[in-house]
Amino acid sequence: MERNIAMELVRVTEAAAMAAARFLGRGDKNLVDETAVAAMRNVLGFVRMDGIVVIGEGEKDEAPMLYIGEKIGDGSEPKVDIAVDPVDGTTLTARGLPGAISVVALSARGTMHCPRNFVYMNKIVTGAEAKDCIDINAPVADNLNNIASAKKKRVSEITVVVLDRPRHEKLLRDIRNAGARVKLITDGDVSAAIEAALPDTDVDVLMGIGGTPEGVLSAAAILCIGGAIQCKAWPRDEKEKEAAVKRGEDLEKVYKTNDLIDTDDVFFAATGVSSGDLLKGVRYFSGGAQTQSIAMRGRSGTMRWVDARHNFDKLQKLDFMKYVKERRWAQS
Q: Which SS3 state, helix, strand or coil, does residue 171 take?
């Protein structure tokens, strides 16, 4: 794909973020998600592409929009796979907490692979300096020592981001016993994975169990950045494990970055919904809003931070913003 679609995707995530952020702290995560989904789908429909949603809101019977298999775009070339998370952090948004983002990834048709049979995967993510030093099958202490050595740091200077879940009790104990620092997050492991892969952030590595679709979205960004992700299936219980074995699934298979996205012809965009360490959230002012986004292209490795100021009076005259306009006034 010669055209840099990343900047077009920013327009998509901006629309979803501005739609969702209007309900910041209002306690209704379903409304946050519903509004962001509709705004994102509407703007995606204007992008010049023949897209198929491979990671979305679920199967068609469960999700009326952005469902897996839905065709999206204006139908013209190029043919692409689309992965979306209209709000990574609906609970964060509903509770008025930091760190929620809107995310879209795109790659050439047939190159985006999601192990759908597993809801959760165990993951490890780090940046370019240490990408050849991680092994998801190795002890936590070994990984941390190797990462520290690659980054020319002491282990005590390494920060590991982990989802704050009961299932991570042993992982947290191992990290702390190794002497590393811990940053706990309540939600939003796509944002956390990007932080772990980017240079010059406060996070060196992500570890722990999170959603499988989020792992693929993270892989798209990580491929652009030049870091690495490794994942393994994590069955939630014996029943899920037995079902996977009966299907012939290899529970020991390690999925690396190129197993999830097997091309460098990939684009990624994210916009902050609520302000966090990665991106600033939507800030409204009289007649408009400010947003901050990140746009990435795998082939060039270029990353752009986009600070935008939006004029609602002018945006409301554009067809692709009609839904945001109608929803904004209906819910205010």
A: helix
**Prediction pTM value:** 0.91
Q: What is the mean pLDDT of each run of 10 residues along the chain (332 residues)?
A: 87 96 96 94 93 85 80 93 96 96 96 87 97 97 98 97 97 98 95 95 96 95 97 90 84 94 96 96 94 96 95 72 44 40
3-state secondary structure (DSSP) of residue 107: strand
Q: Are strands 71-72 and 303-311 parallel, antiparallel or unpaired?
A: unpaired
Element (H, E) at 232: strand 228-233
Please name the residue that has the structure tokens 């490794």. Answer: 230
How much is the pLDDT for 8?
93
Amino acid at residue number 35:
T
Two structure tokens written together for 306: 């986009």
CA 277 to chain centre: 14
Strand partners, 122: 209, 232
The rounded distance, in Å, linking the Cα atoms of 264 and 116 is 22
For residue 64, what pLDDT is reported? 74
Pick from 153, 172, 151, 170: nearest CA to 161: 172
Amino acid identity, position 202: D
Rounded alpha-carbon distances, angstroms, from residue 32 to 38, 134, 143, 263, 275? 10, 36, 38, 33, 16
Contact present, 92 and 106 (Cβ < 8 Å): no
pLDDT at 331: 42
| Distances 139 to 136, 196, 252 between C-alpha atoms, Å | 8, 19, 15
In this prediction, residue 273 carries a pLDDT of 98
The count of other CB atoms within 10 Å of the CB of residue 274 is: 25
- 15 CA to centre of own chain: 16
- The letter for the amino acid at 63 is A
301 half-sphere exposure, CB direction, 13 A CA radius: 6
